[in-house]
Specification:
486 residues, alpha/beta, Aldehyde Dehydrogenase, Chain A, domain 1, Aldehyde Dehydrogenase, Chain A, domain 2, 2 domains, seven-stranded mixed beta sheet, six-stranded mixed beta sheet, globular, binds NADPH dihydro-nicotinamide-adenine-dinucleotide phosphate
């Protein structure tokens, strides 16, 4: 970490501000949540989930095998007619109850999310958990208004939804998937990611406390094989997946020829475009939030920074100075800006792509900071002299690494921003409203932020173009993938 300097020469260091984990009520071992209860696996295994900041095991978690998945899907099938047959207002009440209980256990959920996934507790406390509750509140409100959400047409639930979520926003992604599915009268079987199953299991406890009818929601932790088996289960009526484009393609192939609707929210290489007339200091804050939020483990991260040539040097200087003030380290310290990389595998993937960037001739600058001895860490990194064909300008790094490209004209900015197989999100920084709208309309991205970045709201639709997937989550658009509309 660079030493903070002041005009007076007095150095003010931050005092440690650790969030306590003493209030966390984790069990030593978790079963699979099927039919409203935690069960031992029939043919699965048990695996320890590890804290990526310390490499210490936190708890043991059951991984589902094929017979477990069958049991989960059967329980969800059996529960579905009763759940769909409830008065819609009552389904909404259950979702409200779940939202309230998430709020009541917010502090504990935030700490567990940071322990299991490595993200700074400031983010899990202020973003992940409040937004997870907000999604349940939002869709609780829609439960008795479904037809209004689809233009007044007749609606019916699809049946059993198989849902697979990644490790970057474990509880939030679970909420994005479960809340609309349940509001629409479906039941759901959710597979959390291998490295971050804990908050989904705490959500299962919350569902028990909310007295959600048995079988309406199942949580079946496991690895990629569990996910692959779940989407191939004959008893499912819908698949919703968030994760890598490669796995998304595999799922699409697995469902070919079956009448099972699919929603895919996949990777991205989102362009964050800074014009010369932008408020540059504000833009630098947005760039930092765009790429270093959650260590860059964000599908819509602003990982391709496009700066107008006339201000490139100035913006890069400001950005580099700001990066030097990022605090990297203990995710449970409330001062931490950049926490641990989620897993050893992900760290290796980041290192491999960063070496490729250096090998291809881009100029690398990484913040000189003291990294803890144990755990998985990567210093915030900036690449300049990047060519559009470099791997670091094309591939999703999914880490705290930003690649800078420049442009001269608005047309060139649009052309470069769209020169990607992905199309998930983008940012536009300019003082001119008309220019912002013109550029936003020309960008092939599901979400375009104007003079801000990484803002999420349950009422706003989110989803991709091209290889970033299809289908929308959030808002009334997020109801559609879970309904049969006639
Ligand atoms: P994956 O796409 O492999 O993981 C996402 C989820 O799918 C996890 O629950 C995973 O289980 C599961 N899964 C894995 N293989 C299959 C399969 N064949 N069929 C069904 N489900 C499966 O992402 P990774 O964790 O491997 O990350 C790889 C890269 O993907 C990252 O470096 C990043 O670039 C990108 N990524 C993008 C995300 C996004 O939101 N767009 C989120 C996560 C990753 P398990 O946890 O066991 O792997």
């Amino acid at each position: 970490m660079t030493t903070p300097q002041t005009r007076t020469g007095i150095v003010w260091e931050y005092a440690p501000a650790p969030e306590s984990s003493a209030h966390v009520r984790l069990r030593g071992s978790y079963g699979l949540f099927i039919g409203g209860e935690f069960r031992d696996p029939l043919d699965g295994t048990r695996v320890a989930t590890v804290n990526p900041a310390t490499e210490e095991p936190i708890a043991e978690v059951a991984f589902a095998g094929p017979a477990d998945l069958r049991a989960a899907v059967e329980a969800a099938r059996a529960a579905q007619p009763g759940w769909a047959g409830l008065p819609a207002l009552d389904r909404g009440k259950y979702l409200f109850r779940i939202a309230r209980l998430i709020q009541e256990r917010a502090r504990e959920l935030a700490v567990v999310e940071s322990m299991d996934g490595g993200k700074p507790v400031r983010e899990s406390r202020d973003v992940d958990i409040p937004l997870a509750a907000a999604h349940f509140f939002h869709y609780a409100g829609w439960a008795d208004k479904l037809s209004y959400g689809v233009g007044g047409r007749e609606v019916a639930p699809l049946g059993v939804a198989a849902q697979i979520v990644p490790w970057n926003f474990p509880l939030l992604m679970a909420a994005w998937k479960l809340a609309p599915a349940l509001a629409c009268g479906n039941t759901a079987v959710l597979k959390p990611a291998e490295t971050t199953p804990l908050t989904a299991l705490l959500l299962a406890e919350i569902c028990q406390e909310a007295e959600l009818p048995e079988g309406v929601m199942a949580i079946v932790p496991g690895d990629g094989r569990t996910g692959a088996a779940l989407v191939r289960e004959p008893g499912i009526d819908k698949v919703a997946f968030t994760g890598s484009t490669a796995v998304g393609k595999d799922i699409q192939a697995a469902l070919a020829g079956r009448a099972v609707p699919l929603t895919l929210e996949l990777g991205g290489k989102s362009a964050n475009v800074v014009f010369e007339d932008a408020a540059l200091d504000q833009a630098v804050e947005g760039i930092v939030n765009g790429i270093f939020f959650n260590q860059g483990h964000v599908c819509c991260a602003g990982s391709r920074l496009l700066i107008q040539e006339s201000v490139a040097e100035q913006v890069i200087a400001k950005l580099w100075a700001r990066m030097g003030r990022l605090r990297v380290g203990d995710p449970l310290d409330k001062n931490t800006d950049v926490g641990a990389i989620n897993s050893r595998e992900q760290l290796e993937r980041i290192e491999e792509l960063v070496s490729a960037g250096e090998g291809e001739g881009a100029v690398r600058r990484s913040v000189a900071c003291e990294l803890p001895e144990r755990g998985y860490w990567f210093a915030p990194t900036l690449f300049t002299e990047v060519a559009p064909a470099h791997r670091i300008a094309v591939e999703e790094i999914f880490g705290p690494v930003v690649s800078v490209l420049t442009f001269r004209t608005q047309a060139e900015a649009i052309q470069k921003a769209n020169a990607s197989p992905y199309g998930l999100a983008a940012g536009v920084w300019t003082d001119k409203g008309a220019k912002a709208f013109e550029v936003a309309s020309a960008l092939q991205a599901g979400v375009v932020w104007q003079n801000t970045y990484n803002r999420f709201d349950p009422s706003a639709a989110f989803g991709g173009y091209k290889e970033s997937g299809f289908g929308r989550e959030g808002g009334p658009a997020g109801l559609r993938p879970y309904l049969r509309v006639s």
